[in-house]
Amino acid sequence: MIQLFLTKTIGGNNMSLLNDNTKTGGYKHLNYTERTQIERWHNIDKKKPKEIASLLNKSTKTIKREIKKGIVKNLNSDLTEKFVYSASLSQERYDYNIAAKGPDLKIGNDIKLIKAIEDKIKKEKKSPEVAVNELDANISAVTIRNYINSGNIFDIIPGKIIYKKEPKTKNHKKVVCDKVPAEKSIDFRPEEANNRSVYGHWEGDLVIGRRKKGAVLLTLTERVTREEIIIKLPNKKSESVARAFDYLERKLKKRFRTKFITITFDNGGEFRNYQLIEQSALYKEKRFNMYYAHPYCSGERGSNENNNRLIRRWIPKGISMEDISTKDIKKIEEWMNNYKRKMFNYKSSKEILAAF
Question: What is the pLDDT of residues 40-55, one digit of tens each?
Fold first, then answer.
């Protein structure tokens, strides 16, 4: 698996904070800032452990041990492998070991930082990863998640805002629903959609409100950029879904054909009438190709599922969609498309789209 690692850089004098020659009363563990410096010097500048030790005022043995602890295998674009040092991985391992030993909490006395992280997560609906990146905090996202789950530090209820990462469900028998033609199975989706190499392949679903009847949200997620489109529907009928695409087609006109190539839905009844949904409102032909994920395999629409969780940060389960205005929906959509993501090296979908 290709692993991407974020390398943090510090502007100005790189040694001003790290190469402090003031003697201390004893040994101090490496912090995350120092680890990011090691990552850059080792991976990019190709400095020797002795040079790095001198820059950080540490022993060569400490640097060698740290590099060995954080080494991971990385796959290059030409499919060759190389071993690199990962500051984030090393920090996560360090935090895990510290938590297992049960010492004092790392930020227990830093009230200002605790409040800043809480505001990022509760008010701005950011993930711990994004919060750490924006605050440039000397703590890993894994540690924040552990503190949230333990309830020792943050006034955040686990599962309300930050969801626990569940393992993928396996061993489900992959069968196509009787009412869906075999050629509409995700197995027949173009390879360019599967490998996310071409823009224009989407995943879709409905986000339901408090009641099974009434207004719902049609959510569409583009697989390459994670661009999000949210449209409020009066109900969950296929006719309403088709009318939403009629609206988009008339709005985008010729751009629609390049923006929407395929869309993958689940096997819900609201999406079964693929002939109606695929049919163009402007021409006597299909406007895109629909495909269906295997039953009980929501992970095959994982990008859309994850984006729906972001929506739930603003519209928790149990809230009626009737009470959510179109203006509010557009604000959520805009927030999502400007949301910085770790997978994009903390760029947003909007920033990724600008490169197309």
Answer: 999 889 999 999 999 9
What is the distance between the alpha carbons of residues 69 and 35, in angstroms, rounded to a whole number? 11
Compare 137 and 186 and report the one with higher pLDDT: 186
- Using only C-alpha atoms, the chain has a radius of gyration, in whole angstroms, of 24
From residue 84, how far is each of 18, 43, 73, 277 by CA, in Å?
22, 6, 6, 48
Output the CA angle 125-127-131, nearest 5 degrees.
Answer: 95
- pLDDT-derived band at 108, boundaries 50, 70, 90: low
Distance in angstroms (rounded) separating the CA atoms of residues 63 and 349 = 37
Ordered by start, the domain boundaries in the chain are 1-101, 104-163, 182-353
Secondary structure class of 344 (helix, strand, coil): helix
Domain at 182-353, CATH homologous superfamily: Ribonuclease H-like superfamily/Ribonuclease H (3.30.420.10)
Residue 151 and residue 158: Cα distance in Å, rounded?
8
Q: At which residue do the structure tokens 């930020």 appear?
A: 107
The closest alpha carbon to 9, from 31, 30, 39, belongs to 39
> What does the pLDDT read at residue 4?
31
Q: Any idea of the CA torsion for 345, 347, 351, 356, to the nearest 10 degrees?
A: 20
Condensed to tens digits (0 to 9), the pLDDT of residues 221-260 reads 999 999 999 999 999 999 999 999 999 999 999 999 999 9
Q: Are 84 and 5 in contact (CB under 8 A)?
A: yes
pLDDT at 170: 47
CA nearest to 313, candidates 335, 344, 346: 335
Residue with more model confidence, 148 or 64: 64
